[in-house]
């Protein structure tokens, strides 16, 4: 039978109609959604997840179809500014600073905005857009992320929308890279390669990364690339993309203890040294005597000061208030205890004797365990929008389960449990 458009339509009519419906849903996300309209937001997510499930069920072996559908869903957001996050204002602000050789780890927007000779285009619009919480602190984005911001600011020129377009293109390309290396990784781990589409068509990924311009996708591109190199025994080379992943977002630091069990002591030490040197080289251009103090202080705010999407902490705070506890004292104490609990838990997982028939799967499956504790216990999930509580869960989901059992785990994530 000739492969004509009519024949293709006949064979794939239902998935094509579902893809068109999905495009309408993502268009609504991009252009017709207010972040305060929670019911509409939740309904759109539920419908998008249902379509994601059905598209994969119908076309899981049709790589070209699902690739095109996933790219089209992302391109719908291409020429719109994020409506569920304001972080991109700070991204562009930092990008212009780096582009003008101003260290974003040494200057806070609150101080810079008062300068009459400020070199940042649209400075007041960016300052107002990022909000007071961001404007009064030093940047906490690692150096490779800062470089990407600078490229976006340079190519975007004096246009906020231009910079948004460049950043969105970067994130879409990173997701395509994750699809490429993710499929190869799954094959090496004797897993079905179609499982990668639980990431690529995941509405949380499409909306939170492409839509809201968060760079976890770029982090995950380097992370998955590194895991792929590990799966083909190129562990020294794998250290380089792993370091790049850390220098986009610090989250991969959480997984470093796992490699001690997977690689053994001698190889792990070399692996860690390569990562450490690579990270130091990327941080070096930003170094100054005040850098370490400023950066540590800013990152530390997530552990002891900021309080939103707080999970377990809110429950403990509620109980403490019933016994006349003072929340402003509790958050300081809680911030000191949770890192200790997390470290002890990581060590317990690392030295556990649990094994799997597939040792590659075993160390990766361990990786989805202790970050859960980190995200549940800490008072922030580093997200600013109403549906952002799920973002921290999908980070765990992607990093820990991308390479195994993605389908069932994804449904657990949507239900809010792991």
Keywords, please?
418 residues, mainly alpha, 0% strand, globular, disordered C terminus
Explain what this protein looks like in three dimensions:
This protein is mainly α. Helix content is 69%, strand content 0%. It is built from 22 helices and no strands. Helix 1 (5-31) runs parallel beside helix 3, helix 8 packs across helix 9 and helix 13 crosses helix 15. The longest helix is centred in the middle third of the chain and has 29 residues, at 160-188. The chain is globular. It starts with a helix and ends with a helix. The model is unreliable at 379-418 (pLDDT under 50).
What is the topology?
Elements: H1 5-31, H2 38-59, H3 63-75, H4 87-99, H5 109-112, H6 123-130, H7 132-135, H8 143-156, H9 160-188, H10 197-200, H11 203-211, H12 216-231, H13 235-246, H14 258-263, H15 265-283, H16 291-304, H17 312-322, H18 327-350, H19 359-366, H20 370-377, H21 389-401, H22 406-414
Summarize the structure.
The chain is mostly helical and 418 residues long.
Low-confidence stretches: 379-418
Rg over C-alpha atoms, rounded to the nearest angstrom: 22 Å
Number of helices: 22
Helix content: 55-70%
Which class of secondary structure composition applies to the elements? mainly alpha
Overall average residue pLDDT: 80
Q: Biggest sheet, in brief?
A: none
How many β-strand runs?
A: 0
H-E order: HHHHHHHHHHHHHHHHHHHHHH
> What is the terminal separation in angstroms?
46 Å
Strand content: under 5%
Shape: globular
């Amino acid at each position: 039978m000739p492969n004509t458009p009519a024949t293709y339509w006949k064979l794939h009519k239902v998935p094509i109609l579902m893809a068109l419906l999905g495009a309408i849903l993502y268009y609504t996300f991009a252009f017709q959604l207010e972040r305060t309209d929670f019911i509409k937001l939740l309904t759109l997510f539920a419908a998008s997840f249902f379509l994601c499930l059905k598209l994969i069920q119908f076309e899981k072996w049709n790589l070209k179809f699902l690739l095109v559908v996933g790219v089209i869903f992302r391109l719908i957001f291409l020429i719109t500014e994020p409506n569920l996050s304001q972080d991109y204002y700070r991204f562009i602000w930092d990008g212009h600073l780096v582009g003008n050789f101003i260290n974003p780890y040494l200057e806070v927007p609150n101080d810079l905005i008062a300068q009459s000779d400020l070199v940042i285009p649209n400075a007041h619009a960016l300052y107002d857009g990022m909000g007071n919480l961001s404007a009064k602190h030093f940047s906490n984005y690692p150096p490779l992320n800062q470089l990407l911001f600078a490229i976006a600011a340079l190519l975007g020129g004096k246009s906020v929308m231009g910079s948004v377009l460049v950043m969105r293109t970067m994130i879409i390309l990173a997701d395509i890279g994750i699809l490429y290396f993710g499929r190869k990784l799954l094959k090496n781990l004797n897993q079905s390669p179609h499982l990668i589409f639980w990431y690529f068509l995941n509405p949380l990924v499409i909306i939170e990364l492409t839509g809201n311009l968060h760079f976890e996708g770029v982090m995950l591109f380097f992370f998955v690339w590194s895991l792929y190199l590990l799966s083909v025994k190129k562990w020294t080379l794998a250290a380089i993309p792993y370091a790049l992943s850390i220098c986009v977002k610090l989250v991969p630091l959480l997984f470093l203890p796992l490699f001690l069990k997977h690689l053994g002591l001698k190889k792990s030490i070399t692996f860690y040294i390569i990562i450490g040197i690579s990270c130091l080289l990327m941080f070096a251009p930003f170094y100054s005597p005040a850098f370490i103090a400023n950066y540590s202080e800013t990152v530390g705010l997530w552990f002891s000061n900021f309080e939103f999407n707080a999970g377990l902490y809110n429950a403990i705070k509620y109980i403490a208030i019933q016994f006349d506890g003072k929340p402003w004292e509790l958050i300081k104490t809680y911030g000191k205890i949770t890192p200790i609990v997390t470290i002890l838990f990581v060590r317990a997982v690392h030295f556990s004797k649990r094994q799997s028939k597939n040792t590659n799967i075993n160390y990766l499956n361990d990786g989805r365990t202790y970050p859960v504790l980190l995200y549940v216990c800490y008072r922030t999930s580093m997200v600013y929008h109403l549906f952002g509580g799920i973002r921290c869960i999908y980070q765990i989901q992607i990093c820990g389960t991308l390479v195994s059992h993605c389908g069932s785990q994804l449904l657990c994530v949507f239900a809010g449990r792991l």
